[in-house]
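Structure ticket #2291
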Amino acid sequence: MQSAILAAPVSRSRLWTGRAISTLAVLFVALDAVSHIAKPAPVVDAFAQLGVPLHLSIGIGVIALISAALYAIPRTSVLGAILLTGYLGGATAIQVRAEAALFPVLFPSIVAALFWGGLVLRDIRVRDFILGRP
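Resolution: structure written out below.
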């Protein structure tokens, strides 16, 4: 017979801090995704400068929106964080390939850290996993 291990609940302040950080990161990615779909002039220029074909813009935006939605749903938030980490890793790779300045190269990693930081603060299971606790 297996006994269930009950984790201590997340403190109220930690939970709300995690939610605030997660909301900020989701809103940023959602705004970015919508701009990829709408294709205003700055997006068209950025795609040209980075050497990314513009016809990929809508697909990239849809992937970002789906990943952000998965992250925003508590039950699928870990899957969303994993997908967003891959998405933002691709953004970093594109910036490195284009020999961009330091900030554009680091910014996707900062956003990924916000996603994981928010998740760690609001989900005790993720925090225990990352810290190697049983």
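Closing remark: The chain has one domain: 25-123.
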